[in-house]
Amino acid sequence: MTLSGNQYEIAAGPYAAVVTEQGGALRALSRDGRPLILTHGPDEMPPAASGQLLAPWPNRIDRGRYEFGGEAYRLPVNEHERDNAIHGLVRQESWTVDGHEPHRVRLTYRLLGHAGYPFRLDLALEYALDAERGLTVRVSARNAGSRPAPYGHGAHPYITLGRPLDECDLTIPADRYLEVDDRAIPEPAARDVAGTPYDFREGRPLGATRIDNPYTGLHRDADGRAWVRLEDGTHSVALWADEAHPWLEIYTADETPAEMRRAGVGAEPMTCPPNAFVTGTDLITLEPGAEFSGSWGIAGS
Predict the structure, then answer these.
(1) Domain boundary assignment for the chain
(2) Non-local CB neighbours of 112 within 8 Å, separated by 6+ positions
(3) Collapsing DSSP states into helix, strand and coil, what is residue 48?
């Protein structure tokens, strides 16, 4: 048995993917054998949260402390160097397969009361491949408890063209971004990207630009999808997020293990920005019995 548990393979046309039992994570995705995301071995821990689902919050909570419903809570700090609670509670857990077809796999996880998060959620993930449209991921959460619960989710794939980012063009379809401090906690108010190094609305060479920031004010197509694109003149890879995800964290992998450093862009669809449990920005309150869902995906050419 590998460290990440069972490996669920799916395929359709030129696309193939591997989803792991641990965390319900996307470990690999390719088109015609060409990787579309940074991958790792089945017996390795996912480096820099690669491919993981982030729930019931994405990114960071400042010192793990927040208030909700008039009560104060304190989550275990698991980013010790910055004194934050990071990336939720389910990315290391064993998920149960609830259906596996050649092109699709569905997994579920029941999150019971946890230190600092005394709420109960039923979570579900579906990964589906289409020969024309590539990968679609659907994430859903239902409050299976007896009281309202704070909720947000995100995902952490690194899209790649198999070459250094400095040689690629990047498009980020966003009008605003959040500046962050040295502990990666964002300031409250979003800034306009115009006139800053963070403006990639038209698509341009990334060069040596370093990014680790949340973006919002997303431009969407007729289907309500916002697209992040990485291109090199020959190939492209694009991640889309639906309207359930008004935020994108973009990370140029500058502080990752050497083998993946600036080899892919962390393009992370999020339902809320970092530290939303503290600020309340786009935080979802799930009433007992209520459900929330959203979709994102990746395609290559």
Answers:
(1) 7-300
(2) 120
(3) helix
What 138-142 contacts at long range (C-beta under 8 Å, 24+ apart), as own/partner pairs, is 138/293, 138/294, 138/295, 139/53, 139/55, 139/293, 139/294, 139/295, 139/296, 140/291, 140/292, 140/293, 141/55, 141/56, 141/286, 141/291, 141/292, 141/293, 142/286, 142/289, 142/290, 142/291
- CA gap 170, 276 in Å, rounded: 27
Q: What is the pLDDT of residues 231-253, one digit of tens each?
A: 999 999 999 999 999 999 999 99
- Please provide the CATH number assigned to the domain covering 7-300: 2.70.98.10
pLDDT > 90? residue 1 = no
Residues belonging to the chain: 301
The tokens describing 173, both together, are 């379809």
d(CA 84, CA 249): 17
pLDDT digits (tens, 9 = 90+) for 5-43: 999 999 999 999 999 999 999 999 999 999 999 999 999
Rounded-to-integer distance, Cα 262 and Cα 18, Å:
23
Residue 56, preceding peptide bond in cis (omega within 30° of 0): yes
d(CA 299, CA 229): 10
- What is the rounded distance in angstroms from the CA atom of residue 107 to the CA atom of residue 139? 10
